Structure formats: structure tokens, C-alpha cells
């Protein structure tokens, strides 16, 4: 039998963390053995692919044998031998390791545009992208369309910026194209600083050429000859793949002088961020590329008129740019057929937290939130009760259970006090405390505030202090009102988006979870059992078997007791870390 | 040191004079940013040292003190937070005998750092030990990894 065999191993950051490289070595070693027949070796090819979304089940491996695809989950090196033996040689997939129904449920409910090639093509091979239709859009644009026509197509598609603000991309390009400066720039914003978001990392790791192609088309449209990708240093794999891809693109003459034989020169430099969230803000990002402290400037002037080195500059998010080739290949009407009246197309979200199928998803704008959580996400982990979804990270808000049927698009989320933002979606369950989560975000914004403007520098600090006293049991009457008033002032007077949106998590949790704030302030209780100062841990005599497991894990040495006798927790020494509860097999420890 | 600094100086001139890139290069060479290096460049380039310090203290990536041999980076993103990263960090500090506010152990064997988000939220909580990403970490397996590193030293 002739074997036509393709092995694809998931090697995004998630795949590698779960041991993807070891699995790849195992395949290579096993297939290299003498006992494997030559015809298998000859017709077998192995590829690394980027993230396909469901990192929680890594290492994921696709085996495509004579055009039939089988996907395995949780693969470890020791499993490889059996897969080769039973599947490759005998043609019987090892059913017990094949992905379960929820893998298909996760994928079948999505519509993939930006991610359509992620997890399918090898991100380190430009040929793989080209064979999948890559750089066709660039050719089409440069050989048959004027910059004006290209911009018109993007405008018609309805694409809006995916970096958070949702500004129409075609319009931004048009503004910049009308500037007459001899020097213009296009910058790809890959600073992805929102905690809980990894869309941009996955796109660059999984399909860097789509971003590059999008940038070249953008540069052609606005008349730029230099581009930058500003990328976080915390994403080493993405940086490596991007650099590799740029080199390949130069070799294929998609970058450099006289691209595709036309009078158009363009090249892209990579700039590494140095770990400051505020540098995701466009004017701060420009300052950072110029080599200064990344502090935002007042707008206007907007970067499209006066940006990098004071020249007209378009700044677009990674996902925005990665959409461009697909829109041009398939047409503006096609793209606009997804989504709602005002929010067109699809959006990538990072679905994480207490969700069963945690991962990267792409859905049409306007999809009901419930479908994301239950159909794609498979519901809440460990059968807990759903409490809220946090969207938009530190600039966003929480959406409570009663609003689960809301549509996910720019306008609908804004109407309930949250935002689409860059696409982080963190699911919270009954064990999460809304005051604690809010405090978490304020700690973040307070420490990331650049300090230039007073409302943000001092205001976020005061907000955090109030939240800290509430969660430590020292909340006062009137604190809720104080939080609200201060929030509105900070929103109205801060210089940049960081301060203008930092109070959002507070306002939205007060709106929907006021009772939790009140329980902390008035009853000195944390209903979810999270805020340490309001908790104490006790061992229930009737259930304790004296096994000593809790005593062993207690980092503070607060637990005492003889073997087989009831143990005790010394509340003075206890640091309330919760390690004991996790270790107890008899559910004998309670917090309250 | 002089030789390395001279090399970096040449790179800096090629790179159209970007101080952030220069500091990144210095840190790549030394593992941190030695004060002497800043004064050297300040004199050589006639740029006030305050500009270097201003930048070095603005960005989280830069370290002005030497770091440990083993770098343990704990992710404090939202997903990791709700999955218990705080407990991991407390356990880690305890195991390494690090007092509140300190990041490097006295013997310079370990440095514990917190980062905002490494973007591997699906496998939260995440800890990076010497550049290797560990997903779905627990106090237990983290302690095991640390003890293994400690044994290696002895
Ligand atoms: C504090 C702050 C952080 C931001 N971080 C990012 C980011 O990490 N990535 C991003 O693409 N946009 C970020 N933005 C939005 C950018 O300023 C800008 O709107 C965006 O890059 C424009 O690209 P787009 O039109 O394609 O969305 C941030 C804005 C603010 C105020």
C-alpha cells in the first residue's frame, strides 16, 4: 500500500510548553528505526504548526493518512511508538487517544478568517503560506489595483481596528494616504499587553506571513517605505518566527527594493518592547521606538498626520493587519457578510479562566455570548456556576449571568459597560470574588500608569487603596460612592486611554455586583471566600482522619496534630493560602 | 568590560542611536545594567546619565542589580490570577526564603520575577523556569522543580 502520510504537531508556545518538541523528536527517532519500512519513510512528512486554539489539550497531533485526518490529544513521547505501529503501519488509529467530541464542538462553532491557516500551515515555511494562497493578495493589489482602490476595498469590508478602539481601518489608511510627506511609516502594534490576551501572539506564531503581507499592502496603500513591528520581548517564539518570516519574505522579494518589479520599496524592522503596558498606546509606542520613555502625548495631532519622527504614520494591530490579505483575496462583500450592521467580520478571542475548552477562538461579530461560553467553550470547568465574563482586560468590564444573551460586538458590549477590547475573555465562576478581581486590575493599571498625568497617576492609586481596604475588612460606609465619583473624574480627565478606561472594571462590578461590595464593607465577609483577611480556615473534627497531608503542605507550619488524630490549624500562624484545602482528600477543611 | 562596551558603542552608532536598544544590548551582555556602564556611555556620548536611568527605570525589562543564576518568572496575568498564581508565588518565596520585596536570594542562585502576562493563558497558571514554560503549574510540581535545581548546585 502506498502511504501518503503527513504529521502535524502543534508547536505554539502552548504546544512547546506541553512537550511538543519531545513529541517531534520521538516521531523522528521512531520513524528513523530500521524496522520501519522504507515506503513509510519516503512518503512521510512532518511539520510544526502554530496554535489551532485548544492549547488546553496539547500536545495535539494531526495525522493525515491517505487524506484522512485524525487528531490526537495529550500526546506524550511514549505514545508515539504505538501510534506508528497501529495507525501508520496497520491503519488503525489509536481510538483512546483521539480527540473527543468537545474538540470538534469547539471548532465547528467557529468561523475562521484570520486563523484559517493557523494550525494548518507550517509558520516557518514561506512556501506553505504561498501554497495556501499567501501573497496572492499582494500580487493582485500591486499589479491590478491603485492604492486608492485598495483603500476603498478595505473601507467597504467594514474592517475596524482590532487593537481595542475599533477605528475603521480603511479610513485610517485614507487619512494617511492623503498626507503629502515624502516619508511615511506603517507600524504593526504587537505589544499585546492586556493580561489574559494572546490573540496576537498566536497569530504571529501561527501565521506570521499574513501579518507581513497585510503590512506590505498597507504600506503600498498609504505610500510608506518603512515599517516597524513593535513586539513584546515576553514573546520570544513569536519574535523568532517573525524574524525568520521577514527574511524569507526578503528572499522572495516581497520586501526590499522594487517589490514585484514595481517602483515600490518597503522593508520592515522589528523593535522589541521592554515591558511597559502603556507602550501599547500608539503615541507611547512611537516614543518608545524613538528611544524615549514610553509616555503618551495628547491627541491631536493624531499619528496619521504626525507620528513616528513626526512623519505621517499608520499604526495597526496584528489581527487587523492579518485580516487584510484574506479580505482582498475573497472580496469586501464576503468579509462584510459576517458580523453585524456596524461591527463587520470576525473577531479572535482568547477564552480563558474557568472554562472547559480554554483557548483561542474566532467568531463572527454579533454572536451571542452564551454560544461562546456553552457551545464553543463547553461550559464552566468542574460544573461550577457561571458568574461573569470579564472582557477587554483592565480597560473592560464584567458581564454577569443575566446578560449572557448579549451579542458580542463593539456597540452591544459598550452598552452594558464593557468593551470588546483586544479580545481577552476571562470566565469567572462562583469561587471568584468580584472585589478581588477588580483589585487585581487596579493593581495592574496603577503599576502600569506612566505617571505623566495626575488623574491617572494619583487617581488609580487612590482607587486601589480603597479597594484594598474593602477587601481587607476595613471598608467604610460611603466607599462605594467614593469609588464611583473618583472613577468618573479619572475617566473624564486622564490623558490617554489607560487612565480613561482604568476605572471601567470598578464601575461595571459595582453596577452588577454591588451586593458583594456591600458584604465586604458591612458584614466584613467575602461571599466567594477569596479575600484572605475576611477568611479563617478550620478543620472539621468529624471528617479529619489525621492523615497529615495538610500538615505536610502547609507552608507556614500552622497545622499540628498526631497521626490518625484530629488536626488543628493555628489561626495566628495561618497564612490562608488554601494549600491545605487542596491537599485534603476528605473535605475536612472549610474556609469561611 | 571596556572591550564589550566599545563593541556596544559601535552597534549603537549603527542603530541610529537608540538608547532602549543600547540598554537591551548592555543587559544581554551582562545580565543586568551595571551602573558603571551607564556612566561610561554617558561620558562617551555626552548624554546625561539621568536619561539612561530614566529609561532603565521606566521599562520593567531592565534590571539595575545582578540577578540570580536561575530565573523563575511567574505569570500574573488574569487567567493565572484566577487559577491561583498568588499561592504559587507565596510558596515559592517561602521555599527560597525570600523576604517580601526581595527578588534574588542571598547566594544569587535564584531570582523570582513577576510578569504581567506571558500569553499562555490556556495552560494557566504558568511559571517559566530558565526560559522553559511550565503550564498548569501546582505548588507541588513547582517545589519539586526548585529542589531539583538546588540539588544541582550542591
Ligand atoms: C493603555 C493602552 C494600551 C494599548 N495596548 C494595545 C496593544 O497591546 N495592542 C494594540 O494593538 N493596541 C493597543 N492599544 C490601542 C492602540 O493605541 C491603537 O489604538 C491600535 O494599535 C490601533 O490599531 P487598530 O486600529 O488596528 O486597532 C492600546 C491603547 C491603550 C490606551
Describe the structure.
The complex is a heterodimer of chains A (592) and B (154). Helix content of chain A is 40%, strand content 15%. Chain A contains 24 helices and 19 strands. Chain A has five domains: 5-99, Glutaredoxin (3-Layer(aba) Sandwich), CATH 3.40.30.10; 126-336, Rossmann fold (3-Layer(aba) Sandwich), CATH 3.40.50; 346-429, Ubiquitin-like (UB roll) (Roll); 434-523, NADH-ubiquinone oxidoreductase 51kDa subunit, iron-sulphur binding domain (de novo design (two linked rop proteins)), CATH 1.20.1440.230; 536-591, Alpha-Beta Plaits (2-Layer Sandwich), CATH 3.30.70. The longest helix of chain A is centred in the C-terminal third of the chain and has 19 residues, at 504-522. The model of chain A has no long low-confidence stretch (mean pLDDT 94). The radius of gyration of chain A is 26 Å and the shape is globular. Chain A has a five-stranded mixed β-sheet. A four-stranded mixed β-sheet of chain A has the order 2-1-3-4. Chain A has 592 residues and is of the alpha/beta class. Helix content of chain B is 50%, strand content 12%. Chain B is α+β, with helices and mostly antiparallel strands. Chain B has helices at 2-14, 19-30, 35-45, 49-58, 78-82, 85-95, 139-153, and strands at 70-75, 110-115, 127-129, 132-134. The longest helix of chain B has 15 residues, at 139-153. Chain B folds into two domains: 2-58, no CATH class; 70-153, Glutaredoxin, CATH 3.40.30.10. Chain B is elongated and about 50 Å long. Flavin mononucleotide binds next to strand 8 and helix 21 of chain A.
What is Rg of chain B? 18 Å
> Count of helices of chain B?
7
Structural class of chain B: alpha+beta
Output the number of helix runs of chain A. 24
Low-confidence stretches of chain A: none
Low-pLDDT sequence parts of chain B:
none
Distance between the termini of chain A: 66 Å
Largest interface: A-B, 59 and 45 residues
Tell me the CATH superfamily of the largest domain in chain A.
NADH-ubiquinone oxidoreductase 51kDa subunit
The helix content of chain B is: 40-55%
Shape of chain B: elongated
